[in-house]
Amino acid sequence: MLDKFILQHQHRKDALLEILHFAQEQYGFLDKDVLTHVSDSLSLPPSHVYGVTTFYNFFKLKKPGSHVVTFCLGTACFVKSVEEIISTVENEFNVKRGETRADGKLSLFITRCIGACAMAPNAIVDNVVVGKATPEAVVNKIKSVLGEEKVEAD
Amino acid sequence: MKPIDIIKLAERDLDQRRSYKYRINVCCSSGCLPFGAEEVLKAFDEAVKMMGVEKDCKVARTGCFGTCSVGPAVVVEPGDYLYQNVTPENAREIVKEHIVKGKPVKSLLYSNDAFFKKQHRLILRNAGKIDPFNIEDYIAMGGYSALIKCLTKMTQKEVIDEVTASGLRGRGGAGFLTGQKWSFVARATGNPKYAIANLDEGDPGVFANRTLAEADPHAIIEGLLIAAYVTGIEQAYIYIRSEYPLAITTLKKALEQAKSLSLVGENVLETPFNLAIDLRLGAGAFVAGEETAILASVEGERAMPRPRPPYPATSGLWAKPTLIQNVETLANIPPIVLNGGAWFSKIGTLKCSGTKCFSLTGKVNNPGLIEVPMGITLREVVFDIGGGVPNDRKFKAVLVGGPSGGCLPESQLDLPIDYESLTKAGAIMGSGGIVVIDDKSCMVDTAKFFTDFCIDESCGKCVPCRVGLAKVQKIFERIMQGEGRLDDMSVLEEAGNYIKEASLCGLGQTAPNPVLTTLRYFKDEYVQHITEKKCSAGKCFKKG
């Protein structure tokens, strides 16, 4: 699939971002093998491909957890105290921002603005937006997607 | 398709639109979708069929009305009755009472007229009125007639002259005269020439461009077509944030439909004019909205700015002349062509004509997307349109211009909104973010938040921005840990001014604004943090 897409773009170097987008859509994240393959196919140095990939926040180099909660940390959400909700989730589910829990079940990411500022603060739990969020609402939503009543904290 | 065919199409579609007694517009843009707009749309569709009024009443998927805090929002025409927080049950009730019996359901209506009173909808003229997935809806409202006028009745120079006469300035933030930019590109030597429509709305707290793309994608495309036609461009890119999936889908669909009516592609409307338009996705880099950084990104490189001159108008994409224009600027073009530059120049102020979209958010009763004439005061925006601060809290500051804007206090609220006044007060127009801050927020903490943001988003190319901002951050950390010194304030000010003057691009040149304006207007809070080690908002010095 990826090769076909690269061929569609005639191995053009300036299609690098398009190709990285496509690869991430296909595989969920961009690991070393994918990046090496892209650099070979476009005859670009691996360092260049790695440099471009890490420059942009949207590209993920690690496999995300099976469930993902993302907090919007845009200005409106900041002003509406989203930090308190993030800390609550970190403590409650034993996961740090930007990381995936050791059991691979939950990732906690921060994004810079989803543009739903009128509904701030916002959280996204497995692609569902929780608007006008409260700590309780987000914790309950995460619990329900994890399908567990209690989370052991070690 | 020839121009005359589009005119015929417009007449047919307008007749069709008028044949319905009622039209129910259901906002299905990113603000309303998470709260069940799709289900509401379905409920309206079913209710209209069930009650047998589908011949009298059209149910349409539309873009945003601006009242994003009361979604899902629905407007019933005629009369523009706006219903708020609509559920599928409400939908059935509205059809039964309003459509069948002709009695609006008062208990569900949005009662806040003040929100719309001072607005002037020019850029968002079609937002919430047309189905963005249906090009015929746009054509029925007079869409593409400005392009036809340019292609058939005006010379390229005449169009540029009208745009120059309108006084329209770039809405991306810098405020450069659009007509002047066009004549630079038109005169530039080099072939081919390129255009980039900038939809990389990276400012957190800003969603005006996204709303425009989701509500009225053809307004952007038509503006781009006209710009390309008069400057001799045959290849254009729309650079859009990857975080805006619905806007991307909407634009893709709009481009397909425009191509099928030969409005985009080779021989536009059977004239010698060609324009290919391709989408380019951003990937979450704030700096990519800067005009030289966007060039690098479209070329598949890291979005790092480069020094100017040479300006993109002479040496842009692949070192060829390139016109870079914000999408909001482009959406102004069709009405200017149709009504003339003189008409446009009468809206707004003398130096700053037209209207501007603002995303009004934060601690304000009526958050949402607004469009106001230039020159309106901040007080009118915050208190009249926005309805003031909720929960009996006290207004403290308003942040204008995004993360590198300025925090302005009550005493500056009578400032008219235009490029010069805002810059003088220490803020910027930016991409049009207005965030209201109440007394629960600490201004030192707020200034640090924006500094952190700009550090994250700094590309690292030039020293003042990369190193200077890190130094500023260190001083903030010290103050917030109770180890601040009184001379920290003058160091912050000095560093801030150096960063402003010496940085390469707009990001660094504006990044210290929140620090400098909070120092200018909220110095007491810094002094309190440093000498008393106290934060009256209760944000800093928390144990833990």
Core attributes:
heterodimer; A: 154 residues; alpha+beta; Glutaredoxin; 2 domains; 5-stranded mixed sheet; 7 helices; disordered C terminus; B: 544 residues; alpha/beta; Rossmann fold; Ubiquitin-like (UB roll); 4 domains; 4-stranded mixed sheet
Please, could you describe this protein's structure?
The complex is a heterodimer of chains A (154) and B (544). Chain A is an alpha+beta fold and 154 residues long. Chain A folds into two domains: 2-55, no CATH class; 67-146, Glutaredoxin (3-Layer(aba) Sandwich). Helices cover 44% and strands 13% of the residues of chain A. Residues 149-154 of chain A have low confidence and may be disordered. Chain B is globular and about 75 Å long. The longest helix of chain B has 18 residues, at 463-480. Chain B has a five-stranded mixed β-sheet. A four-stranded mixed β-sheet of chain B has the order 2-1-3-4, with helices on one face. A four-stranded parallel β-sheet of chain B has the order 7-6-5-8, with helices on both faces. Chain B has helices spanning 3-18, 37-50, 88-100, 114-117, 135-140, 145-153, 156-166, 178-187, 208-215, 217-231, 245-260, 291-298, 327-339, 341-345, 378-385, 419-425, 443-457, 463-480, 488-502, 506-510, 513-521, 523-532; strands spanning 22-27, 57-62, 74-77, 81-83, 194-199, 235-240, 276-281, 322-326, 355-362, 368-373, 395-400, 406-409, 433-438. Chains A and B meet through α2, α4 and α5 of A and β9, β13 and α17 of B.
